[in-house]
Design a protein that fits this description.
Elements lengths: L2 H59 L8 H27 L2 H8 L2 H13 L5 H16 L9 H4 L3 H27 L4 H27 L1 H9 L1 H24 L2 H7 L2 H12 L7 H20 L2
Helix pairs in contact: 1-2, 1-8, 1-9, 1-10, 1-12, 2-3, 2-7, 2-8, 3-7, 3-12, 4-7, 4-11, 5-13, 7-8, 8-9, 8-10
Length: about 300
C-alpha cells in the first residue's frame, strides 16, 4: 500500500479530533453569539489559516494557480451552503439537548453520504462498506437518548433530534460537494485540490453569512470581535479539521471517510464527560462499541 493510499486514515482521525475541539469552542460561543454567530466564527477566523495553507502548498509544490471552471464553482456553492446549514443546525441541536447527543444525531449523515455519493458522484458502495455503515449507524442509534420503545417516535421527533438529523443532511451534502469540487479541479496533487477547494468554499461561506448577519443582527458581528480569543481558537481548530478532512476526501471515497470520522463520537463523549460533566449510560457504551466496530471494518477493508 503506497503512502497516499493510506494517508486518508490519519488525516481523517486528526480531522475528527480537531472537529471535537472546534465544536467545544463553538458550543461555548452559542449563548453569546447565537447559532449563526458561532457558525460565522469558524469561517472568519479560519480564513487566514486557509489562505496561508493555499499559498504554502502552491509555493512548496511549485504549482501554478489551477483554472477554475463552472463545475468547480457549482460544487463549491453546494459545499458552502451545506456546511453552513449543517453547522448552524448542529449547534442548535447541542443547545436543545447536550453536547454529545446533539452531535450523535448529526452522525446519521454517514448513510446519506453513501447515498448522495452513489447518486451524484457515481461512487459504488461495497458490501463491506455497507456493513461498516450499518454497524456504525446502529451504534449512533443506541447513543440516542435513553427511552422505552413506545417513546421512540417522540424521541426522534423532539427538537434536538430534528435539528441533529437535519444537520446531518446538510453535512452530507457539503461532503459530496467538497469531493465533487476536488475532483472537478483536476490538479496533480490532492493537497492542492483540497487547499483550493477549502479557500473558495470558506470565502463563500464567510461572505454569505457575514452579509446576512450584517443586515439582520449587526450586533453579532461586534460580538464576534469581542470574543476574539475563543473565536480564534475555534477558527484555527476548524481550519485544521477542514484541511485534513477535505484532503482525505480528495484521496478516498466520501463514504469511507465519513464512516471513519465517526471516531469523533468517541472524542466527543470524552469531552462530554470531562468538560460538560454529562453522564454516559451502559446503552451508550454499547453504541460506542458498535461505532468502533464499524470504523474498524472500514479501515481493515479499505484499499
Amino acid at each position: 500500500m503506497s503512502f497516499l493510499a493510506w494517508l486518508w486514515i490519519p488525516l481523517t482521525i486528526f480531522a475528527a479530533a480537531a472537529q471535537t475541539v472546534r465544536n467545544t469552542a463553538q458550543r461555548r460561543l452559542v449563548d453569546d453569539l447565537g447559532a449563526l454567530g458561532a457558525t460565522l466564527v469558524r469561517f472568519v477566523y479560519g480564513m487566514p489559516f486557509l489562505a496561508l495553507w493555499l499559498v504554502g502548498v502552491l509555493q512548496m509544490g511549485g504549482f501554478p494557480l489551477p483554472a477554475l471552471g463552472l463545475e468547480f464553482a457549482a460544487w463549491i456553492v453546494v459545499a458552502a451552503l451545506g456546511q453552513m446549514t449543517g453547522t448552524a443546525l448542529l449547534l442548535r441541536a447541542m443547545a436543545e439537548r447536550s453536547f454529545a447527543i446533539g452531535l450523535v444525531y448529526s452522525k446519521c449523515e454517514v448513510i446519506q453520504v453513501a447515498v448522495f455519493s452513489m447518486v451524484f458522484l457515481g461512487e459504488p458502495v461495497s458490501i463491506w462498506t455497507g456493513v461498516a455503515i450499518v454497524l456504525a449507524t446502529l451504534g449512533v442509534v443506541l447513543l440516542s437518548p435513553r427511552a422505552g420503545l413506545a417513546a421512540a417516535p417522540k424521541r426522534w421527533a423532539d427538537p434536538a433530534a430534528l435539528f441533529g438529523l437535519a444537520s446531518g443532511t446538510g453535512f452530507a451534502i457539503s461532503i459530496v460537494g467538497y469531493r465533487g469540487a476536488a475532483l472537478a479541479l483536476d490538479v496533480p496533487s490532492p493537497f492542492l485540490g483540497a487547499a483550493e477547494t477549502l479557500f473558495w468554499s470558506q470565502l463563500t461561506q464567510m461572505l454569505l453569512l457575514g452579509i446576512w448577519l450584517a443586515f439582520r443582527t449587526p450586533k453579532v458581528l461586534l460580538g464576534i470581535l469581542r470574543e476574539w480569543r475563543l473565536s480564534f481558537f475555534a477558527g484555527l481548530a476548524g481550519a485544521s479539521a477542514s484541511v485534513a478532512n477535505v484532503t482525505a476526501l480528495a484521496l478516498e471515497p466520501a463514504s469511507h471517510v465519513r464512516t471513519l470520522i465517526l471516531v469523533e463520537v468517541l472524542f466527543t463523549y470524552a469531552v462530554s464527560l470531562r468538560i460538560f460533566r454529562e453522564a454516559i449510560s451502559r446503552r451508550e457504551v454499547g453504541g460506542i462499541i458498535l461505532v468502533i466496530l464499524g470504523v474498524g471494518v472500514i479501515v481493515a477493508t479499505s484499499r
